[in-house]
Amino acid sequence: MQTILIDAGARRWTLRVVLVGLLAAAIVALAATADAQDRPQPPHWFWGNDADGYAGATVTAIDADGNEVGINQDGASVVNSDGEWSVQVQPEDASRIKLRIANADVTRETNYMDVVSGGFDPAGVSISAFTNFVDDDLQETVPPSSIEVRIVARRADDGRIEFGMRDQHGEEIFPRARYFPNGGPGHSRWLRSSEIDFGDGFVGRIVARYVAGDGRTEFGFRVEGYDDIFPRARFFPATGPDHNRWLTSTPIEISQPR
Hints:
- Strands 2, 3, 5, 6, 7, 8 and 9 form a 7-stranded antiparallel β-sheet that branches. Strands 10, 11, 12, 13, 19 and 20 form a 6-stranded antiparallel β-sheet that branches.
- The protein starts with a helix and ends with a strand.
- By secondary structure, it is α+β, with helices and mostly antiparallel strands.
- It has 1 helix and 20 strands.
């Protein structure tokens, strides 16, 4: 009889321990959930390392309303002598920002970029992305007088050459008419693509022709009011390549039509 009482007591004691443990686990889980809800999202880290021509300049993040946002710790938004800088932006502060670099002589801005929780671009933001000049007196963004772009081309599955442009922001644009016939059109006259719009008034067309004798395809770019522009690397091989990767020309600088 005494043994039975001891077993029953032990079972009751064990049950209490289990219940207390479950309650403690529930409290910890609730605390962790509340902590996760209150904890801010990881910031987006914008950075660059090729702004050595702007040593001492400040880099700030500007939201859609024109307000300066971001976490600039330990002077991280000041460009150092090696051209390095960084700015952190909390997603709850802004969903899109543009970066502004400014010194005593000039102020330049990027186009707007998305802010992503924990965002980090391994390549960073190049100084070439700061394409828009700002009039400090009017605080207005002045469109650039020229932009740098590239022609891209690849061999399609049916043997034709597909071509397009890589714009000033690294995005690829493909015109509606963008295929050069396999083996050439039967003449060496220039063919042209449909119009390509880069924004801010920059438009033009890719031109291409068959090179008699060696079978290569030569590419250039045409902007109204100017001579055709031909990059140094502008020839596509007569046969191949047998991969699906885009080949790129050397950069070309274009202005607005006149």
